[in-house]
Design a protein that fits this description.
By secondary structure, the protein is an alpha/beta fold. 21% of the residues lie in helices and 11% in strands. Bound molecules: magnesium ion.
């Protein structure tokens, strides 16, 4: 498990795993909910035995306030329909969710800054020497 937040005032509480929704639990079809991603239910059932699963989705963004929570309600309906286990949905009100691990289809796994540029298909600036892994 990543080192992030280990023992950071957590006491005996279970580790938290933040899980994205669109493109991770369901196929991308925003604003609709796409089909359930293969394996999502079985893996989340398994993870729920060890982790508090917190759904972390852009659907809670203030950007979509004009929709009156419609996208969140649709997500909750989907989660119930497919019996996806979760402890809560993060509303983003307190900033980035504190978690021990993050599952997101748009995440870039950080190893070095050079790898980030490589992932995005961007050439490093002239003279760039990556010392981030040192
Ligand atoms: Mg996503």
């Amino acid at each position: 498990m990543p080192q992030c937040h280990k023992g950071a005032g957590r006491g005996s509480r279970r580790p938290v795993i933040a899980v994205d929704f669109d493109g991770t639990i369901c196929e991308h079809a925003f604003p609709e909910c796409g089909e359930l991603k293969p394996g999502a239910k079985k893996v989340l059932d398994l993870l729920s035995k060890q982790f508090d699963i917190v759904i972390s989705s852009c659907r809670t963004s203030k950007m979509f306030e004009h929709e009156g929570g419609k996208y969140v309600r649709e997500m909750i309906r989907f989660l119930k329909e497919h019996e996806i286990p979760y402890s809560r949905i993060d509303g983003g009100d307190e900033g980035k969710i504190v978690a021990d691990a993050y599952v997101d289809d748009k995440a870039i796994r950080f190893t070095t800054w050079a790898s980030v540029l490589n992932h995005l298909g961007i050439l490093p600036p002239p003279g760039f020497i990556d010392t981030s892994s040192a």
